[in-house]
Amino acid sequence: MTASLTRREFLQSTAAVGASAAFAHVTPNPLWEGFASLAGPESVPGWASKPMRWIQLTLVEDDPGRFDPSFWLDYFKRTRSEGVCLSGGGCVAYYPTEIQFHHRSAWLGGRDVLGELVSGCRQLGMSVLVRTDPHATYDDLQAAHPDWIAMDADGKPRRHWASPEMWVTCAYGPYNFEFMTAVHEEIMSRYHADGIFLNRWDGNGVCYCRHCIENFKAAAGLDLPRSTSNGDPARGAWLLWRQRRLMSLLDVWNAEIRKVNSEACMIPNNGSGALNSLDMIETSRRVPMLVADRQARRGLAAPWLIGKTAKEFRATMGNKPVIGLFGVGLEEPYRWKDSVTSNAEIRIWVLDAIANGMRPWCSKFSATLHDERWLQGVEEIYQWTERNRNYLTHRQPLARVGMVYSQQTAWYYGDEHAETKVENYALGWYQALVESRIPFEMVHDQLLDLAHLTNLKTLILPNVAALSDAQCEQLRAFVRNGGSLIATYETSLYDELGKRRNSFALADLFGVEWTGKTEGPMLNSYIRLEHEALPHHPLFAGLEDAPRIINSVSCLDVRPRETFAEVPFTLIPSYPDLPMEKVYPRTARTDISCLHLRQPAGRVAYFPSDIDRTFWEVLCVDHLKLLRNTVLWANNEAPVVEVEGPGLLDVTVWRNPGSITIHLVNLTNPMAMKGPYRDFFPIGPHTLKLDLPSHLQAKQAQLLVANKSINFSCSSSQLTVRVPSILDHEVVAIDL
Ligand SMILES: [Zn+2]
Known about the structure:
The protein is of the alpha/beta class. The strands form 7 sheets. Strands 7-6-3-2-1-10-9-8 form an 8-stranded parallel β-sheet. A 6-stranded antiparallel β-sheet has the order 11-24-25-31-27-28, covered by helices on one side. The longest helix is centred in the middle third of the chain and has 26 residues, at 233-258. The protein binds zinc ion (ZN).
């Protein structure tokens, strides 16, 4: 079996979610028509669908000898937490396990700490997940089963990087498939949990143990990869084999725990988005809810990053609950796991998660409190969500714009450079859309069938380089049916396995072919605005007085397939940037277009450059206007909501049973792009205009944070409300 065949088969299986409707004739709905039925997650068992607030207590080994369970049970009660995740076993067992080599906490004594906590939480009516962590073990197990330990490329067993008295286990062999299966069975039999939450279960890179060597050879016909470059064919095959191995592991564990509780499920801890190494569709299929582990900001992360994570998870989870796991400490490479960050930083993170459709999950390491400053802040947020639970069910987003993310592009085109070659393009668009207050969704590239896109008018493809012929056909169908497309740089220049094509698979939509040449990084290059040829063009909004703006950094050389009706932006090529005496344009004007606009049915805008990545790097306001104007031109309809007033706001709009809610998260802060928020700064007033169709009658409007009713006015299809001031967030709720 070759790697590529395996990959294609895998893609076919993942695409089956929407395959039945893939090429059906479904016209994109005008705004609102797609929102008639508010289907809920009926197939989700109650333990997963009901909890709106989760809390996780991760015990450390010496906790059993010193912590006070009644303190925590009281805190769960005060926070109105409805679901809990409690430490069970794997690395350390917090109950009197009978399984050989399952290491009991050295402080356990005669106690059953897990049993005490499960019993207390059940009395509070909580859903209960038990956490296991299989990634590390001890000398006794290593001596008895040396083949259960992960091996490095030299065939040496791997010591744990942080706790050197321990060993790293092999995730793909008998340690997980046999030993941890027995652990999960024992926990379920004793405690009848609703499920098992898996931490660090999916391995630590390539393992060279004898099981991995044999199993990989049998599956792929290859030796294990020795490099991390996608030039190595074994590397691509291994990425795929690892996924299949881990998915079958989930299936084995699920089968075992369902012998005890038929509604139970393994809940794998998970990253998100294009950079996730596990197929999000395959994972989403196996769970009634999923937990996104994005504990806090670090470094230059933007405050909306948790919202992006929420959108990425919802893209593959549909109406199943998506849970946002947040920490209360600083999230930096130095791993201060017992730290406590500012209350403002915790709040902005959790509020943006909620605004984007996540249910909060507070994760606390260590039951012994070294610092109590976070307790009250989390309690306040949780109590607010309880008071407003009817408005936070978040059935359907009303966004009309979708941004595609592509795991296959990250794996096979980006690989070890996925962050710079893939993710930074999406981050540029994300920032531009938040600044523009345009509600939008994330869309998984395996769900581009018309049925999945039915509520969207415009799709953005930020350098989605690796696309199959079938995916490109789905995008053509979207445009044929009136949808609009915006694409940048190398979108569709590679197939789904990362093999470069001679030109774009979407050349017909873009209206251009690649000549084979790429230029960049370009210094001191500009974009000329063709005001004379196209006066008052919508792409020039906010740039009326700008004769030229800075260019992007890298550019593909493209040849037009046709004559374009409008060429609003042309290239001013690079010219010397030193000595200063030599800094003058050699060419004042060219006919080389920087943005290709077509209107075959829906609208198509193609940038042959890394304009979005450049925006993320430089954050030039002219690029913001250009990106925003392009989205508005492509979308070409009245916006769902317009928000007038100052500040940086993350705006989301939801249709819920009996209401519409508009979340306004105030990100305006000197620490917005680096470092924890210290405080909040009120902004306002804001005027909101909602495009409300005549068949929906607004009964009343209220502010869920200010906690008061407000006046609203209606004229034709527009409902207008005024929000006097926003400190950290506000939710406008309109009862229908
Ligand atoms: Zn192994």
